[in-house]
Amino acid sequence: MPRDWSRHFAPRAARMGASEIRELLKLLDQPDIISFAGGIPDPALFPREPLAAAFARVLGDPARAAAALQYSVSEGYRPLREWLANYMAGLGVACTPDNILITNGSQQALDFLGKLCIGPGDGVLVAAPTYLGALQAFNCYEPRYETLPGPESNRLHAGAGEGGGAPKFAYVMPEFQNPTGTTLDRRARAAVLDLAEALDLLVIEDAAYEKLRYDGEREPSLLQLAIERAGHIDEARVVYCGTFSKTIVPALRIGWAVAARPIIQKLVLIKQASDLHSATLNQMVMHEVAAELIEPHALEIRAAYRARRDAMLRALARHMPPGVDWTRPEGGMFIWVTLPVHLDGARLLERAVREARIAFVPGEAFFADRSRRNHLRLSFSLADPATIEEGIERLGRLLRAA
Amino acid sequence: MPRDWSRHFAPRAARMGASEIRELLKLLDQPDIISFAGGIPDPALFPREPLAAAFARVLGDPARAAAALQYSVSEGYRPLREWLANYMAGLGVACTPDNILITNGSQQALDFLGKLCIGPGDGVLVAAPTYLGALQAFNCYEPRYETLPGPESNRLHAGAGEGGGAPKFAYVMPEFQNPTGTTLDRRARAAVLDLAEALDLLVIEDAAYEKLRYDGEREPSLLQLAIERAGHIDEARVVYCGTFSKTIVPALRIGWAVAARPIIQKLVLIKQASDLHSATLNQMVMHEVAAELIEPHALEIRAAYRARRDAMLRALARHMPPGVDWTRPEGGMFIWVTLPVHLDGARLLERAVREARIAFVPGEAFFADRSRRNHLRLSFSLADPATIEEGIERLGRLLRAA
Asked: Is the Cβ–Cβ distance between A135 and A298 less than 8 Å?
């Protein structure tokens, strides 16, 4: 009988289980599957040549290479933080490099914020549904989840603080939310900050998809609005998490957190204890490439993803049977499908892969309490418009037969 | 008055403070300081050209580049894990790629093992002194430290389990320990495993410096010995943490953990929740470079560091006043100096930087309880032999005047 290791593990480890998304990503290796599962950028859009040139420049200069390959400070490569401070200023957020920590993608910022704030049983407000990766990051610190009122709600959060102390923070993805694709309007953003002030919460603003807007007007970030209320970033109660994963490439693992200095200083200590620092070379290369091309490159990827979103919305209108509804996102990578309540997304997925050779993510995993099963998350970022049409047609046939 | 954020933080965050090493690393920017502080490889020894060539090869091939820049699996790039399984077999550890997780340096493996195992108040056995970064990683999970008997001790750990439940694991760096430079002989390794069996502990084996042996015979790793006792790696109670930081370069942030599959499977979930995966490109490049040159490159860096260790040992013999003792390490980067008990390493450092323009790490930070103050850690990895002679001569003058 194999050895049982569980007595060596902390209680938190018992909550960790393999995720559907993780298992699903393995399906992507099968070439005949049309996958709407992963929230994955299209590698055909990666700026490969500028990246290769930047790596060659940095490594071709012995002095720069010595710095690029050596241990460095936990807060991150200073010229990148300086560039990001300017970039954030362009988004309406006045900050300094000392308000910025470089992280391994925004996922690591979410983990660090869980580590900083959550003790066992502490309340955390999340939307229902919300980003699965945020739930996974926070779960390690054993929070008690409460539901953040949706943008359609008028009430100040009625049940907050029930059955425990005051919640620690609200986690919000204001633009093109993963998984629903929905965006908070100005009134909803103000309501989040009102709630945060009323309950004395921090707000974690996950801006992963912010630059992928295809229609409509950009709204100010929660961090910008919080700075306007507080007068200065060091007094503002929002921690903004950004990433180059959706705009440049994911696999250099470069994201950033922007917040009041006392919060960043704690996060720097957490970064040091967790993995010392993000790869110096990757930070130097990302700095060069972002400075060179982030705006024109964002234009290019927006054009490509806009066409795919439009293709998916057209295909859904054409092929979905009555009783099925879906969101019309202004950006991002996702459309959220609501099925008749008697249908179960996870069971449908088994049939979808086997019979229709399509994949998506069942909605259940995006609810902290896994209470809702009649949803699907569709990603339109990876397939071309013709493939999207074909895949949604297959989904329609499957649903008509379900 | 600035806002007080501490009520938003978990109790664990209160334990986090800035480290001496971190503050000291900033001194390295002053060119006239002779620094024996950081445990930092010499960038002149970095295989810059092979790395540049590997980046160019991977990014020059559109298909490989698409994979290198895309999201990938949390356990790590499979060809690198396959190569590491062979590499570990060469070290006497029979394992498969499924026994291996790629981490951001071995620091991240230590953090993940803390996350997996330590609940508040759980016992953790560490040597006194031990690696400061391990203490920082574990501190986030609020352990209760107990002292692991040193290699000179015969007694089975007498106090283990005092004042709490059974300890969760023992953390051991068997080769050229940071900070002392000492190495466990075969009998001491057996004693660690006897203790682990008696107390039903996991053992974390930190092998960061393993390849930097300058004299003497290599001993089997704790993992190898545990596999011999248990019959199979999936039954062995040792988690081995390796890294390329000391042998190739630190700043690609590539390390690995090797353990029983049920432990690796949990660590993979922790990796996913923490930062999804290590940079794919860096893993692909490290695979190419390690396969190409790790053995000849290790020969080269061993020759360089051996000469520096010898220079430091000669200089210490020449310049230290009576009453000062030090270790004679067979490898690694560190010599541990014991001062007369009335001297305080931290106070000495202030004078060393100001008056002698030399830097080292005061020993206090390497004790979980900070109880011993009359030690210094000297690193010989960064300075050339003539500079080492000059710096140790200055240290000797300072100590004679202290």
From this structure: no
pLDDT tens for B94-106 read 999 999 999 999 9
- Closest-CA residue of A relative to B122 is A10
pLDDT over 90 at A150, yes or no: no
Chain B residue nearest residue A118, CA to CA: B10
Backbone angles phi, psi at B278, to 5 degrees: -75, 155
> What Cα–Cα distance (Å) separates residue B112 from each residue in A10, A127, A128, B268, B277?
12, 28, 29, 9, 13
The CA-atom distances, in angstroms, between B239 and each of A400, B109, B207, B230 are: 51, 9, 10, 14
Angle, vertex CA A283, rays to CA B271 and CA B277, nearest 5: 15
Interface mutation vs chain A, best among B204, B238, B274, B283, most A CBs within 10 Å: B274
Put simply, the answer to whether A253 touches B60 (Cβ < 8 Å) is no
**Cβ contacts of B19 on chain A, cutoff 8 Å:** 272
Structure tokens at A173: 């993805």
Which residues from A are below 8 Å from B169, CB to CB?
A: 8
β-bridge mates for residue A358, sequence order? A34
Residues facing residue A241 across a β-bridge? A206, A257
Contact call for residues B206 and B172 (beta carbons, < 8 A): yes
Considering only the beta carbons, identify the residue of A12, A104, A249 that sits closest to B275.
Answer: A104
Residue A273: both structure tokens together: 């204890």
pTM across the whole model:
0.95
Shortest CA gap A402–chain B (Å): 32
- Any CB–CB contact under 8 A between A178 and chain B? no
Instruction: Report the alpha-carbon distance of residue B80 to residue A88 in Å, rounded.
Output: 37
DSSP for residue A7: G
Q: Which residue has the tokens 């936990």?
A: A74
Q: Measured between CB atoms, does B3 come within 8 Å of chain A? A: yes
H or E stretch covering B393 = helix B385-401
Q: Which of residues 99-128 of B touch A (CB under 8 A)?
A: 103-105, 107-108, 111, 115-119, 122
Phi and psi at B42, nearest 5°, equal: -80, 120
What is the distance in angstroms between the CA of the first residue and the CA of the last residue of chain B? Answer: 42
A73 contacts on B by Cβ (under 8 Å): 22, 25-26
Amino acid of residue A172: V
B interface test, pick of A69, A75, A199, A241 with most B CB neighbours within 10 Å = A69
- Report how far residue A42's alpha carbon sits from residue A248's, in angstroms, rounded to the nearest whole number: 11
- Centre a 10 Å sphere on the Cβ of residue A26 and count the other Cβ atoms it contains: 9
Distance, CA of A379 to CA of B313 (rounded, Å): 62
Mean pLDDT of chain B: 93
Q: Residue B289 is inside which H or E element, if any?
A: helix B280-319
pLDDT 10s digits, B106-146: 999 999 999 999 999 999 999 999 999 999 999 999 999 99
Complex ipTM, two decimals? 0.95
Residues of A in contact with B40 (CB under 8 A): 70-71
Q: What does the alpha-carbon distance between residue B117 and residue A308 come to, in Å, rounded to a whole number?
A: 45
DSSP letter (8 states) at residue B174: -
d(CA B149, CA B290): 36
E strands within A105-248?
A: 123-126, 144-147, 169-172, 202-206, 238-243
Average pLDDT of span A249-267: 97
Look up residue B368 and give its two tokens: 């979980």
